[in-house]
Specification:
By secondary structure, the chain is α+β, with helices and mostly antiparallel strands. The protein is built from 2 helices and 3 strands; from the N terminus they run H-E-H-E-E. It has a domain of about 50 residues. Strand 2 and strand 3 form a beta hairpin.
């Protein structure tokens, strides 16, 4: 019986081109437009990519997504932990 499958070598694996990898590859301030029907998948994809985004629905049937910087707490420092707070007693 002849071999039905053909073996191959040195074929590169293509890069992923989904929304998660697209958002991960955006620099802060860059944007991408996607169809409105994919709007509900934007925030879950951004969460999986570990990025913060903002989006606007455009009149041409697309949603534009911008990667934004994570907001810093006031003063530029992290919020104090419970162990670093002083408790005064009388």
């Amino acid at each position: 019986m002849p071999n039905v499958y053909q073996k191959s070598q040195n074929i590169p694996i293509p890069c992923r081109t989904g929304l998660v990898s697209t958002l991960r590859d955006l620099a802060i301030g860059e944007s991408v437009a996607i169809p409105v029907k994919k709007k509900s998948s934007i925030h879950p994809a951004a969460r999986r990519a570990g990025v913060r985004v903002t989006m606007r629905t455009l009149g041409d049937g697309t949603v534009r997504i911008w990667r934004v910087a994570a907001p810093q707490p006031p003063g530029g420092a992290s919020a104090p932990s419970a162990s670093s707070l002083s408790i005064f007693t009388d």
